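Quick question, first post here. What does this chain look like in 3D?
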Amino acid sequence: MWDRKELKAKGKAAFKANYWKCVIVALILTAIIGGGAGSAKNSVDEASGTNGGTITQSGSIDTLPSPPFETEQSIDKPPIDIFDTVPEEDRDTAVKIVVGVLSGVAAIGFFVKLLAINPLTVGCTRFFIVNSDAPADLSELLYGFKNGYGNVVVGMFMRDLFTLLWSLLFIVPGIIKSYSYRMVPNLLADEPGISGPEAMERSKQMMHGHKWKTFLLDLSFIGWFLLSVITLGIVNVFWTQPYLEATDAELYKVLKNA
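> Answer (accepted):
Ran it through. C-alpha cells below.
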C-alpha cells in the first residue's frame, strides 16, 4: 500500500526540480479544466447610491427626487422582450435563428474539447509522468496529438460521457465513478497503443480499493486551495496545481506497478 506523505514528497521534489515548466503546464491544465481558484471581487457602494438618498447628520435619510426617467409608469412596466421588436410573422424565424446559433456554438465547443482540448490534457498528463523521473520538456504537451490520437479522442470521450451519465443519477455515484476513471488520461499518456475501452477498464482495476485513499490524498491539498482562493489564484498557479499534478503522476506510477 502507498503512503500519502511519501507520494506528496516525491511529487514536490519532481515539481521543484523543473519548477517553471511545471508551472506552465499546470497553468495550461488549469485553463483547460476550469480549475484553480476563481478571482474574488468585493465592491463597496456609497450610501447615497445604494439607498437612493443622503444621510443627514441627525441620522435621518432625505429622499432624493427620482431621476426624470424613473416614473411610476416606467417602474411598473415589464421589461421589453427582445422578440417584441420583431414583427409577429417573423418571430418563429427569429427563434429558429437564435436556437440554431446557440446549437452551433455548443457543437463547436464540443468538437474543440473532443479533438483538441482532451488530447492536450493527455499531453499535460504525459509531461508530469515523464517529469517524475527526470526534468521533462514542453514538447511532451503534443504527445496526445502524435501518439495514438484516435485512442486518445475515444478514451477521453468515454471517460467524460460515462462520468456525466453516472452524475445524472446522483452526485455521489458521479464522484465515485470519476475516481474509477481517474487514471484514463495517465494510461493514454503512458501507453499509446491502449484503446479507449481498455483504458477505462484498466483504470477501474487500478483504482479498485484505492478510491477512498485517493480522495483523502486530494483532500490533503485543501489548505493549499484555500490559500489559493485568498491570494486570488496566485498560489494555485505557482504552487498548488503543479504540486497536485506531480503528486498525481506519482500515484499513477505506484498503482501501475502494484
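Residues 4-36+91-256 form one domain.
The chain is about 70% helix and 0% strand.
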